[in-house]
Structure formats: structure tokens, C-alpha cells
UniProtKB/TrEMBL annotation:
Gene3D superfamilies: Glycoside hydrolase/deacetylase (3.20.20.370)
Pfam families the record matches: Polysacc_deac_1 (PF01522)
Gene: pdaA
InterPro entries: Glyco_hydro/deAcase_b/a-brl, NODB_dom, Polysacc_deacetylase_ArnD, Spore_PdaA
Domain NodB homology: 63-244
Protein name: Delta-lactam-biosynthetic de-N-acetylase
Length: 262
């Protein structure tokens, strides 16, 4: 009897969560990669992003790049990456989890002190499509509070959903909570620390996919990325690219080109 009650409770909770999410199908962010140096086609996702003010690239055609890094844990390379960004005067956004903030407060402080943006990657890294709006709110607010305790950045406004999983409901809810979803238009498998292939591989992966307005997703656990970053930045500058922050992208998107000056 007790086993039956326990199973019934689990079924009820699963049904309740499904009702909370209105049974909206979940999507994993992805697109067909191309090497024609144009933003990838994201199909029907574009309508959803436009509806809720989300981004995956700067579609203006300007030769601008936005560097973003996902940080779930530290592998010893973030300091090196920050050194390169400082030397080359390039801004970046670091999407961090609660574990990262709790374990690496000094790196969080350094990121903010050196002019980078901290983005919200949630506190516990759950699949947002399976939890309620209140649970999502708690995940985001707890992470924001943790960042505020160890740095001068008191508010987080950019969100990268855990695992890149989303649906219209999660886009709507997080928009109502004041967040801007930021996906990406350039990425490769760089997080498998036991399968690093040398900095040239990372360099080639980025250069093959680079395009005007790219939002690049990289992981700081990659030794390849740490070694390739300075080479990438210098080469892209030679090709006429500039590096901007996500704040620049949002400002640009909301002002006439003649006012923004691009």
C-alpha cells in the first residue's frame, strides 16, 4: 500500500509539473553548421526569439563578435583566459552556475573588476522545461544573490538556459522575470577535457564558423581554448572584426543606427 501511495504521489507531481508547463515541447538549441561565414539558419526558432527579445547573433551584418563562456566548474584555465582578454582589451560574458560562484569567488570578482559581464546560467543547472516558474525564479535569484555577495555586479540580466534547453513557456517566464535569453551562433565540442586536440584545432573550429555578428560559445575548461584565444583574437582583428559586449548588442538593437554610430 505504501509503495502504491509513493508511486501515486510521483505520478501526480509529474502531472502537476506538466500542467505548470502546459505540456509545451522542449527544444535543445541547435542549428546546422555552415562554413560560408554567414549566421546559421535557425528556422522556426527565429520567430520565438523575436517574440521574447532573445538573441543568438547580431544580424546587422557588422563585423562584430561577442565572446561568451559557460562556467560550471574550474579546471585551471580561466585565469589564463582573463589574462588574454585583458591584454587584448576584449570584453566577454561569463555564464556561471552556483557551484562556480561558490567555489571560485575570486575569479568572479576578477571578471567583474576587469569589465566583463556575469550572466545567469542558473544556480543548480536544471532543465527549465521541467520545473515551475517559481522554481526558475528561485534558481535565477539565488545565483544573482551569490554573485552580488562576491562582486560589484548586483544584477544579472542575461540568461543562458542550462543545457540550451528551452521552450516558449520558459522564454515567456524568464522574459517576465526581466531576463534576456542569449543563445549562440558558433560553438563546437570543447568541453570534453579528456579529448583536447591542441590549440590549432580550436582555432580552426572557430575560424571555419566565424561570421559577422557571431555570439561565440566557449568553455573555460578547455585547455585548447585557453591556448587558442590570443591567436583567435589577433587573427580576427586582422580580418577587421571588433569585439563587443552583450550590453553593446542590446543597446545597438534598440537605437537607430545613425544614433548608435555603427
Amino acid at each position: 500500500m505504501q509503495k502504491f501511495i509513493a508511486v501515486s504521489v510521483i505520478v501526480f507531481l509529474a502531472f502537476f509539473i506538466g500542467m505548470e508547463n502546459n505540456h509545451v515541447a522542449a527544444y535543445g538549441w541547435g542549428f546546422k553548421k555552415n562554413s560560408d561565414h554567414q549566421p546559421p539558419d535557425i528556422g522556426e526558432y527565429q520567430e520565438l526569439l523575436d517574440k521574447y527579445g532573445a538573441y543568438y547573433a547580431d544580424l546587422s551584418g557588422d563585423k562584430v563578435i561577442y565572446l561568451t563562456f559557460d562556467n560550471g566548474y574550474e579546471a585551471g584555465y580561466t585565469g589564463e583566459i582573463l589574462d588574454v582578454l585583458k591584454k587584448e582589451e576584449v570584453p566577454a560574458t561569463f555564464f556561471v552556475t552556483g557551484h562556480y560562484v561558490d567555489s571560485e569567488p575570486e575569479l568572479i570578482k576578477r571578471m567583474v573588476d576587469e569589465g566583463h559581464i556575469i550572466g545567469n546560467h542558473s544556480y543548480h543547472h536544471p532543465d527549465f522545461s521541467t520545473i515551475s516558474k517559481d522554481s526558475i525564479k528561485e534558481e535565477l535569484e539565488t545565483l544573482e544573490e551569490a554573485v552580488a555577495e562576491v562582486s560589484d555586479q548586483k544584477e544579472l540580466k542575461y540568461l543562458r538556459p542550462p543545457r540550451g534547453i528551452f521552450n516558449e513557456q520558459t522564454l515567456k517566464w524568464t522574459s517576465e522575470l526581466g531576463y534576456i535569453h542569449v543563445f549562440w551562433s558558433l560553438a563546437f565540442v570543447d568541453w570534453e577535457t579528456s579529448k583536447q586536440k591542441g590549440w590549432e584545432y580550436a582555432f580552426e573550429q572557430v575560424m571555419d564558423q566565424i561570421h559577422p555578428g557571431a555570439i561565440a560559445l566557449l568553455h573555460t575548461v578547455s585547455s585548447d581554448n585557453a591556448e587558442a584565444l590570443e591567436h583567435l583574437i589577433k587573427e580576427l582583428k586582422k580580418q577587421g572584426y571588433t569585439f563587443k559586449s552583450l550590453d553593446d548588442l542590446v543597446i545597438k538593437d534598440h537605437l537607430p543606427p545613425s544614433i548608435y554610430g555603427f
